[in-house]
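Appendix B, Record 12. Input sequence as logged:
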Amino acid sequence: MLCRMDERSPQDHPASAMPAQEPLDATGGTLFTEVSLGYLVNRLAREFVAAVQQRLAPHGVQPGQLPTLLQLYEREGRTQSELARTVGVEQPTMASTLRRMERDGLVERTPDPDDGRRALVGLTASARAREAAIRAELDQVNAVATAGLDDAEVQALVRTLDAITASLAALHEQDP
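Logged structural output:
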């Protein structure tokens, strides 16, 4: 259920997280920002990024590094192009991310024994040692985000978000 911003209590949303209240539109109807899925998802994503950044900063990990780090926790020895594809970013973006992660002591590149032109990306011992703590922090952010929802609601939310993501990805693939 969507509610008007002025119907939400400050106890539910800390003052620093509450956006400025918007007036009713000229007809007295619902404002677009209250029913726009894109707006709401964007706002949710910003809140998630802020929470993740706060929780992971003590571990030396930035939110932009997280998708790559999680992919490498699942399987090391990937190429830059494979990481870019699985994370869903362009090659130059992945190159920059990997440079920062190397600088931060999270990853290292080694020559591919099958193709000397490529490098394989792996985790440093330091990054491996942080995995349990990082996953625990992410679990905590998810727990806070889903507080008040039962398991069925969380599962339905995940299914819904996956379906929306797939629909938009398909649209993206259709339009060059």
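The CA atoms of residues 112 and 119 lie 5 Å apart.
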